[in-house]
Structures are given as structure tokens and as C-alpha cells.
From TrEMBL:
One BP annotation, GO: lipid transport
Keyword Signal listed: yes
Domain of life: Eukaryota
Pfam families linked: Tryp_alpha_amyl (PF00234)
N-terminal signal peptide: 1-25
Protein name: Bifunctional inhibitor/plant lipid transfer protein/seed storage helical domain-containing protein
One MF annotation (Gene Ontology) recorded for this entry: lipid binding
InterPro entries: Bifun_inhib/LTP/seed_sf, Bifunc_inhib/LTP/seed_store, nsLTP2
């Protein structure tokens, strides 16, 4: 009986951990970075919103760099400047 109880408890723990990881997953959406457009295309500093969104989308940056439609924007000098100003290291994919 103790083995069955232990197994059930472990199964519940694993399910809870898996659910926590799913809720932390980032949805990659380059549109979320629209608040950074002004800072990328001009000399103005990035907004707090831009930096927050950039930090949220950090796990997605390599995917954006591999996308031919997005690469020119993500790899631009302006985008590198914004990433640096926000404290987000530029990815080396």
C-alpha cells in the first residue's frame, strides 16, 4: 500500500511540475516587440515596455534570426543597440 501511495504522490508532483513549466513557456510572437520599433529605427532609447517585451521574447530571438523575413530586423545595428540598452545579450545561435 505504501508503494502505491508513493507512486500516486510522485505522479501528482510530476504533473504539477509539468504544468508549471507549460505556464512559464513563452509564446514567440515578433509583434510583441512592436514597442521597440521606434528605438530600433531612431536614436531614441528603448521604453520600459520595449525592454520588458524584449526580455520576455529572449528565448525566441534565435528563431527570429533564422527566419528570413525577420532576420534583417533582428540583426540590424538598431536592434543590437536596443538589446544592449535593455541588458539583453545578443544571441549567438
Amino acid at each position: 500500500m505504501k508503494k502505491v501511495s508513493f507512486f500516486i504522490i510522485m505522479a501528482v508532483v510530476v504533473m504539477l511540475l509539468a504544468e508549471a513549466k507549460v505556464s512559464e513557456a513563452v509564446t514567440c510572437n515578433p509583434g510583441e516587440l512592436s514597442s521597440c520599433l521606434g528605438a530600433i529605427t531612431s536614436s531614441s532609447p528603448p521604453s520600459t515596455t520595449c525592454c520588458s517585451k524584449l526580455k520576455e521574447q529572449k528565448p525566441c530571438l534565435c528563431g527570429y534570426l533564422k527566419n528570413p523575413a525577420l532576420k534583417q530586423f533582428v540583426s540590424s545595428p538598431g536592434a543590437r543597440k536596443v538589446a544592449s540598452a535593455c541588458g539583453v545579450p545578443y544571441p549567438s545561435c
